[in-house]
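step 4 of 6: structure.
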Amino acid sequence: MLTLGLVVFPPGQATAQVDWHLWPSVGGAALGAASGAVVGSLGSILPCNDTYAGPHCVRWVAVGAAVVGAAAGLAVGGVEPDRMGAMAVGGGVGLAAGTVVGLALTPFIERWAPEDALAVGIVGGAIGTAPIGAAIGFGAGAVVGLAVWQTVPGFGSPGAATVALGGLAAGVLVEWVIRAASAEQSEPVSVGFRVAF
Amino acid sequence: MALVTAALSVGGCIASYRTTADLADRACPPAHAAPAMGWYAPAAVRDRGALDAWCAGVGPSVLDTLPATRATTLGGVEALRVLVWNVSAGGGDLLGFLESEAGLRCGPTRASAPPFVLLAQEAYRRSGEVPPARSRTRVSAPAAERERAGPRADVTTIAARCGLALVYVPAVRNGGAEFPDGREDRGNALLANVPLHDPIVIELPAEDSRRLVIAATIRGGTGDSLRVMSLHFTLLPKLWRNLTTGNAARVRHALGMIDALERLEADRSDGAVGQSATLAAGDANTWSDDDAALQRLRLAFPDSPAPLGEGTRGPFPADHVFFRRGNTGLRGGGLLEGTYRRLPSDYNSDHHPLVITYRFGR
């Protein structure tokens, strides 16, 4: 709840009355929810695979990550539409790049279908909305995972992949939250609350 | 975006895994293919259509339930050696494996051996009975085989050469190649030097391709019996399905198998379930001993041996044994302590075999 409060009411904004951009906030919430759900699902598949709940565990994590992403997107879009626009463009670039990669894989993977290429694109889109967090998270996770793999018997390559993908998912979500928490009004704060279209 | 969110948020809902013995609307298997076999298939229409497309590419099942070479203790079987192995089609040296691990001598002069059953996965058959692929037939790529010296004989040839009982049920075509002596399919097999009774096929819910469990019952010398099941689960479904279901494929397979087992027991015992001692084993394609599918199976098979804690496919614990005593009480048999192990040689397959011994009750 603290996290949600932080991203919906960023520091410096909570006590001031601000221009609230309705449609960018709606779009930001949708983009944040989708991005959160995708990385939540991607990051939880391996660790949840080792629980009795299995796929249900993945769903719970995906829903939780979607809620965090939606709250962050709501705040970014509502307060700073330009930043939201940049994140959406990044998501679009990621979607396109991922889809191209997915299509390029088609000849090499048995039973690889167009929806699988689209799935790669969707993952690319989720990463594209927060590429810095994704890169830092994945890099840190990969380093830690590899180190533990090499030093702890029984950890194995699946453990390393779990940490790396978990790092990626966490990195994307953290970047969303940071962007929401640091969102600033680009124009002077107006008196009174009004909805901008 | 809303669609993506919705799809992923409902991901993790496990699609239907219920099974039925009603095959009335199935194009495959044809009714005449194996009239002596019990057959359970997914009830969901979506699954049945997908499985039909794979099934259309395979030949008929093989049922040869009486071995030509009987076990050394025929008539008074007390202990049964259970071997479990993914033979990797023609890659694994099945003949060498049987001679080394089961003590058989195959060929013109055969030798009896202690009672055993092999629960095999990815066994292949080459035959003119495997039909040509039609436009809607799904054809799997051939199983990846390691090169090896010696002849590459199929499971029906080896069973005949060794005088073994054989239940072979193909799951998919093993590549689209045409050979002078036919085409190839691959699937699950039971090979034994004891009679195999009440053969049963369970088609698992459609995920990446068609996967099966096949079962048969082996009777001990004192009236006790053991149902053995050779299972083969999926490795990874397609990426889209994996993301949108939360990696539910193997859990669906495990639940489908358990559901079919309950139905077939109810069908055979006036509604009561859990009657017979049952050993299910095979290639679950897991990369962890804690896989969600394995946890579900251990609940259904509460007398299962503890995981070995070592890889059977490279570093991954892909192959497992599950067991439940059933309602046989103190007179029922059980697994012999200390007999469950991974064999050191992979016999040129990409999987190491497992072995365990069952002692029949009195």
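step 5 of 6: annotate
 - The mean pLDDT of chain A is 87.
 - Helices of chain A lie at 2-8, 22-49, 55-79, 81-104, 114-129, 131-151, 156-181.
step 6 of 6: archive
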